[in-house]
């Protein structure tokens, strides 16, 4: 795990942590109620990935892999592609079709992974 590597995605995940404590974040927990693990690679998926858990059951975001069983869905991105999806510049379905995002786990859970779960760029 390349935790010394600073990713653009780190800032988005920090915003997500704050977002979870807001009313909008609490609504996401009620609406989605799933756990996502997001693996972000600096350049190439599968290499030097940094993992984050976006727990929309408990309403928390933390660095590292999910330890309470298996996440509902796991996504792998490069740093640049994650930023595009999180900021709404790339549709998750398009990212998947182009190979910019890899998914493991429940496809129905993965379909609930939309840019709406991230704080709006104006807050970032």
TrEMBL record:
All copies of the SCP2 domain together span: 19-114
Q: Which InterPro entries match?
A: SCP2_sterol-bd_dom (IPR003033), SCP2_sterol-bd_dom_sf (IPR036527)
GO cellular-component terms in the record?
A: cytosol
Recorded protein name is Non-specific lipid-transfer protein-like 1
- Taxonomic lineage of the native organism: Eukaryota, Viridiplantae, Streptophyta, Embryophyta, Tracheophyta
- Please state the gene responsible for encoding this protein: LOC105166248
